[in-house]
Amino acid sequence: MTIRPKYFTPNEVSIHNTAKDLWVSFLGKVYDLTPHIETHSGDPLLKPIIDAAGQDISHWFDPKTKDIKKFVDPITGCLLYFAQHGRFSNVPPRCPSSDWANDFGIPWWKDEKYCIGVLSKKTRFIKIINALTLQNQIIEVCSEETMKEILNRYLKYNAHAESYTWKYECNVLDMDKTLTENGIVDDDPDFYTLRMRDDQYLQSVRSSL
Residue 141: beta bridge partners? Predict the structure, then answer.
C-alpha cells in the first residue's frame, strides 16, 4: 500500500523560522532541521541555515544531482561546494583543515530523516460553509490534497466536520479525490488574466449533516 506524502503550503513552511523551530524547503520537499540545529547547537556553521529558516533554498542545489551546487576553484583547480551565503554545516572547508570532522555520515541535505513532506506546487483558497450555522471559513489548501486531507485542515474550525457531508453545487464530493478531480476547477489563472481579486469570488464547498 502506497503511503501518501503530507503536503505543505509555502506559508506553512514560513512560520517555522527560528533556530528552535526550523523548517526549510528545497527541490520540492519540506525538511524539519530543528533536530540538526539542536544537535550542533553553538556551531557557527549553522548561521546560513538559521538565516534561511522558513524559506525555500532550492537555489542552493543542482536539480540534476540534487546536491549542493559546485564550482571549480580557479586557484587549486579543485571541485568545491558553492556556498553562496557562507559555508554551512557538513560542507568541507576549501583547504585541508585539522579541525574538519567528516565522520557525520550523511550530510543533512541528503538525510531523509529530516524530510517531513512535500511542498505544494500550487496552492489555492477555498471557502467552506457550514450549512447548519452558516459560518464560513476561507482556508489555503494544496491542490494535490484530497478532500479528506482538506477536511483535516478544517477540523480546527469545526471539530465535527468528519460527520458532515461535503457538497459542491449540490453534488456530494468524493473525499478521496482532489478539488479538481471533483470538478472544482482552479480559476486562479483566469482571475490573473482578468486582473480580478480571487478572494471576492471564491468557490464554496458546503458541509452539512
Answer: 124
Residues 91, 92, 95: CA angle, nearest 5 degrees: 145
Tell me 201's DSSP state: S
Please tell me what DSSP assigns to residue 55. S
Which tens digits make up the pLDDT trace of 107-144? 999 999 999 999 999 999 999 999 888 889 999 999 99
Indicate the average pLDDT of the chain: 90
Model confidence, pTM: 0.88
Instruction: List alpha helices for the chain, DSSP H.
Output: 10-14, 34-39, 47-51, 147-154, 188-194
Is residue 167 a contact partner of residue 206, using CB atoms and an 8 Å limit? yes
Q: How far is CA 69 from CA 19, 31, 85, 170, 181, in A?
A: 24, 19, 12, 52, 38
d(CA 121, CA 130): 28
- The Cα–Cα gap between 145 and 1 comes to 18
Burial class of residue 31, CB neighbours in 10 A (0-12, 13-18, 19+): buried
| Residue range 26-64, pLDDT digits in tens | 999 999 999 999 999 999 999 999 999 999 999 999 999
Instruction: Supply the DSSP symbol for 79.
Output: E
Cα 106 to chain center, whole Å? 22
The sign of the dihedral angle between the CA atoms of 116, 120, 125, 130 is negative
Distances in whole angstroms, Cα of residue 19 to Cα of each of 119, 155, 203? 21, 29, 38
- Do 127 and 205 contact (CB within 8 A), yes or no? yes
